[in-house]
């Protein structure tokens, strides 16, 4: 491996530039999951990716740049919220997906959260990604209102409902480091739906 | 400052050993809050505390030892859960306390969470502390059952209720880095109480 910069990169989608990015981001994910944020280095990523070090420095500048791009890439995935036919089913499926990402070892999701405590650009990228995902999930609440599962006359704050449904997963598995509880995704979903039905996320609720 | 070890320490409560511990732990809290986990060093703590470096090394061994002791010290405080006369009031007061600890800048609580991603002993100490605090708060649920605020025939899982009430605070303020919302403590408390009243945390709930 040399430090000679690449020749003019091919920027067509699916071209050489895209392939290099895919290789580098795969390497970032693997290094993060195996060694955590503290073990992430430009050199380690370049070696693992089989890409010139100079290319990695020129394009991503530093470890913070790699973290931001790996989070942005997660946001580019064509992710779709679940559609099971009921709000409780949808939130349970969402929670199962979240639980899986948090309990797998090594967990890329947990490594990213840890990293975002130490990198302001990574924290901002993560906030953007989460904001987008919760916005995408608001359709679950809209569909529930259309199906008559939620009080129609008192608009439900979709984001608050989604946070209430998903927060216990992050709290138990990331912050409290509890053992995986296979019933938690369904229980947290059920609690949020019962609260919503009682008007907890409507301004007029009491 | 020299590296000469202390003479035989005075181990009476309130004696020299206790004073040195208090000075060192105050310094750990201040350094953590100001510089974060990555800026915490044995030397920085010793200098700030005005204590011999050798004493700090002998008694706490490394930065992980300092973190564990500062978390254990938080557990030794005579903390009492709120008692406002209603479950919703108690959970709101608890959430206000949590919110305050998370939004103050610098936040010692957030610095400790960040540190626990990088130190297994600190993570274990933090899990112990949180487990104790949630156990202490179970009395809020017992009192609510006695007051007839919760279904008596279907025992409520106190821990699940407490997690549901408090998790949105941590999720919004620590992981999503949302702006402080002065209504959140009360709203999260209200949602958990409505869910509990509907049987969300009872095994027989549906």
Automatic annotation (TrEMBL), chains A, B:
InterPro entries: Homeodomain-like_sf, HTH-type_TetR-like_transc_reg, HTH_TetR, Tet_transcr_reg_TetR-rel_C_sf, TetR_C
Keywords annotated in UniProt: DNA-binding, Transcription, Transcription regulation
Pfam families registered for this protein in UniProt: TetR_C_11, TetR_N
PROSITE patterns in alphabetical order: HTH_TETR_2
Signal sequence residues: none
Location of the DNA-binding region in this protein: 41-60
Keyword Nucleus recorded: no
Listed PANTHER family: HTH-TYPE TRANSCRIPTIONAL REGULATOR RUTR, TETR-FAMILY TRANSCRIPTIONAL REGULATOR
Protein name, per record: TetR/AcrR family transcriptional regulator
Source organism: Streptomyces similanensis
Organism lineage: Bacteria, Bacillati, Actinomycetota, Actinomycetes, Kitasatosporales
